[in-house]
Amino acid sequence: MKHKTYLPLAAGIYLNYAILGMATILVSQYGNQFQALWHTDVKGLSTVIAMIGIGRLLTILIAGYLSDRLGRKRTMIIGMIAQIIFLIGLFFSTNLISACIAAMFMGATNSFGDTASYPALTDAFKEQAASMNSLVKAAMSLAQFVLPFIVAAQPNAHITLIVMVIVMVLDMALIGIASFAPQKLATTNPTTPTDSTVTDPVDSNSAQPSMLIDGSLLIIVGFTLSFTFYIFSQYAPNFGSSVLQLSANSAKSLISWYAMASLVSVFITSSLVTRIKPIKLIFVYTLVSFLALLQMVLLPSADGARLTAIVIGFFAAGGIWQLGLTLLTQYFPTEKGKVTGYYSFATALTFFVGPLVSSFIIDDTAVSVLHVFQIDTAVTLLSLLIVITLMIRNRKFN
Fold first, then answer.
1. Residue 300 to residues 235, 251, 310, 376: CA-CA distances in angstroms?
2. Looking at the predicted structure, is the pLDDT value of residue 191 above 80?
């Protein structure tokens, strides 16, 4: 009965993240229309996407503080209002500057949503916290799978934006009347989706992980892992249209393959991590992602791009980021809140640095788009090298 009380809350959070998932790739999916509206090119779109990262960087630390002080409901509503401002901002934007300002509110949505939604679900569904939080990622992946079909059926971005705003307003009303579980002012239990998979802390009599070395490397991995799937999700349509000369709809459908694989991975990875050490899964997932990107840039083809979309969706976007966070909190169990903040900040940095770097490289030529994916491949290789180092060091902690 208690769980039934919180079902409207869960439904509201999942609907919010479904719209958030769509909003994350909305600019790239309606890229041609937004370029015409804002009198810009693909470099300008990259700048707008980079502003989402700036908005997250500016708000991610204060969002966690407000979630603890103001409460989950108020913080969540702040994030939803920010998302409505973003959608309305895109609707009325007629130039690059106004679009960039609107995009910063999207970054704030990420910050306030994450710091309120995950703890709220954990408090409400303590026994099923891992599975309930995993469904957040599932909602986003499902929505990203559907969006390219929506774009194909409704090529007018303004109509899609209006519908999304209406849904957000209704969802905000649902969250407003939903019951929230009592909030603990101080908790010793983690509130991340994968914390239920954390095993006992490292034996204090054995060698201990170093924050300077192991902690720093894992935080860097938080950046590089996010870079891999975020750059792919934003520029895969450009790769399809510019490098492979696919039709607009076929190019955008790469994101559907990516999102579908990500959705499947959420459930499979959450099951595997109970049987296999996180560091081993991270290594395998990163290796497969690197090999897929390598074949995509060395031997570009339509079938190869679809295969890479599936691989990146499953192995890079479906849960590997949470595995890195699991290992980090496992290494430093007495500083979970602090290291989670560092890890999330590194991820937020990805959403700014990735599109910003790409904006200096990419244009409408196939060579420039290929260069972006070569950088993505190189960053994934860096992830692999760091993970190998962590695996070697991990042996003496067991």
1. 15, 13, 15, 15
2. no
Q: Are 87 and 164 in contact (CB under 8 A)?
A: yes
The sign of the torsion formed by the CA atoms of 300, 306, 309, 312 equals: negative
Q: Is the pLDDT of residue 85 over 90?
A: yes
Q: What is the pLDDT of residue 166?
A: 97
Side chain identity at residue 308, one-letter code: T
How many residues comprise the chain? 398
Reported as a single tens digit per residue, the pLDDT across 288-326 is: 999 999 999 999 999 999 999 999 999 998 878 878 877
What's residue 62's pLDDT? 85
- Inform me whether the pLDDT recorded for 112 exceeds 70: yes
Q: Which domains does the chain have, with CATH numbers?
A: 1-187 (1.20.1250.20), 197-398 (1.20.1250.20)
**Other beta carbons less than 10 A from residue 68's beta carbon:** 18
Backbone angles phi, psi at 210, to 5 degrees: -100, 130
pLDDT of residue 66: 85
Amino acid residing at 376: D
Q: If we measure between CA atoms, which residue out of 31, 96, 139, 106 comes closest to residue 348?
A: 106
Q: What Cα–Cα distance (Å) separates residue 72 from each residue in 18, 102, 109, 116, 344?
A: 19, 24, 14, 5, 18
Q: 122 and 133 in contact (C-beta within 8 Å)?
A: yes
Neighbours of 208 (CB within 10 A): 15
Measured CA to CA, the distance from residue 137 to residue 130 in angstroms comes to 11
